[in-house]
Amino acid sequence: MRRLCGSLLILLLGSCKVGPNYIPPAAPVCDDWVAPDADEDMPDPEWWQKLNDQQLSELINAAYVFNNDLKVAEANVLQARALIQVSAADLFPKLSADLNALHTHLSRNGIIDLISSPNVPTTVTPPGLPQNINLYTAILDASWEIDLFGKTRRGIENSRATYEAQIEYRNGVLLSLIAEVARDYVQLRSAQKNWELVSSNIDLLEKNAQLMRNRFNSGLANNLDLQRIEAELAVALGTRPPIVAQIYQYIYALSVLTGTPPETLICALIDPKPLPETPCELELGVRSEILRRRPDIRQAERQLAAATANVGVAVANFYPSLTLRGFFGLQSVKLHNLFKPDSKTWLDTGTLSLPIFQGGLLVGNLKATEAAMVAAGYNYQQTVLNALEEAEGALVAYTQDQLAAQQQEEAVRRTAEVSRLSNNRLQSGLINLTDWLDSERQLISSQQTLLTTQTQTLLDMIKLYKALGGGWESFCDGEETTAPCEPDSDDAAED
To answer: Which listed site, 74, 190, 305, 434, has its alpha carbon 20 to 30 Å from 420?
Structure first.
């Protein structure tokens, strides 16, 4: 027994892992952003707090707790973690117990007739073989496939990398969920503000149309001017119903994102509120930090690690496998003799299996896994490039939106001054009511343009923070109740 244990220890210590060892890919990315004067302070993980809108923060927290897509991703993380344990089980011996009782009735025309034949030598014929036989067995069975060339350990590497990739996919779902809630909320408030501006414009058009009707009835205006203002009023009235539809659609979307039926948030969100505030400063961090923050890049890197481990499994299939098996137990045809010393039975066996010809199965499998590893490497590189392009594009869009918003704010201020002066001149009788109404409509039009610009600025800010990969970390600081945000070292046995 000591020799057997010593031999097994030598086998285990001398075992190796065939196939390529995983080396994290190099993706050289410079630290400087293309956009000048970028703030390199690390972005706030809870970037939506900069919008100073408590209702938005509450909606994001509710989506984190109740969103069903996120729960699906978390369940997949837990499943992948359990599969690590399944893979690691092959490192250890399998032990099972078998207790059974057998009762059989032998045919007289079968073995009994053969034994009773005069041509059968009496030296091999048990005399008095009964027709009814009972057999009682208590067996302890053990088997163990020695991981000589690392096939099982490479499988564990694959399972662990797949588990970590699922964690990053879950983080990506959470990141997209935060951005989608923020985007729908901003568009909801923008649509409500636009409804107010359109309604104000309709009120002015109705006043202008009534004035034109009075002048037409008095013979001071022609029918062409009347029909022109009536047509303009009809067009303005037609723009309001689609805005109402948008308002309800955004509320429905936010309700579903928080895991509730579409009508749930109507009462909470139907009353108009101002747009969230646009932050004065935007922290971007060092550009290379994107590689460490974005879940899709982290997921692609873990998928590459899993594909590399799969190549090791395919290579190990070419090498011999050693399986040890044995059992020890008790067996007797009489129950009262089962636990006596003479009922002992045991077996030790070892099998060394070497694949010789598999019809190209092993070679084809190796080529397939190597191609998958190459594809995963290119996918990682492309994911990095896409991330940089998305971040740089969102950054330039956001900075230009800020400039456009500043210019449009100046336009609104000047248009408001024109409206004030027109009102003073109207009170002094220097202009007529039509001219004053035109100045008011120009002010509303300018305010609508500013609203569009401010909304786009906020949407591009949300897109930028999503491109920077921030947001999911803020939900990893508290107590975990579901799937983890980061893999834990004690989730499964290390290889």
So the answer is: 190
Other CB atoms within 10 A of residue 229 CB? 22
pLDDT digit string, tens, across residues 81-99: 999 998 888 888 888 888 8
pLDDT tier for residue 121 given thresholds of 50, 70 and 90: low
From 411, 333, 283, select the one nearest 133 (Cα to Cα).
333
Based on the domain organization, do 197 and 57 belong to the same domain? yes
Q: Which two tokens stand for residue 285?
A: 């961090």
Q: Let me know whether 95 and 178 are in one domain.
A: yes
Q: What is the percent of the chain where pLDDT is above 90?
A: 33
> If pLDDT is split at 50, 70 and 90, which confidence band does 322 have?
confident
| Separation of alpha carbons 269 and 458, rounded Å | 19
Alpha-carbon dihedral of residues 225, 226, 231, 234, nearest 10 degrees?
150
369 in the same domain as 315: yes
**Domain residue limits at 339:** 321-353
Q: Which of 332, 353, 374 is the last residue of a domain?
A: 353
- Residues whose CB falls within 8 Å of the CB of residue 326, separated by 6 or more in sequence, listed in order: 141, 142, 143, 346, 347, 348, 349
Element (H, E) at 217: helix 151-217
Domains identified in the chain, total number = 2
Identify which of 76, 88, 35, 125 has the alpha carbon closest to the alpha carbon of residue 401.
35
Q: Note whether residue 461 is domain-resident.
A: yes
Instruction: Tell me how crowded residue 373 is: count the other CB atoms within 10 A of its CB.
Output: 21
What tokens appear for 407 in the block? 């210019």
Using one digit for the tens of pLDDT, what is the confidence trace for 415-436? 888 888 877 776 776 766 667 7
Clarify whether residues 286 and 327 are in a common domain.
no
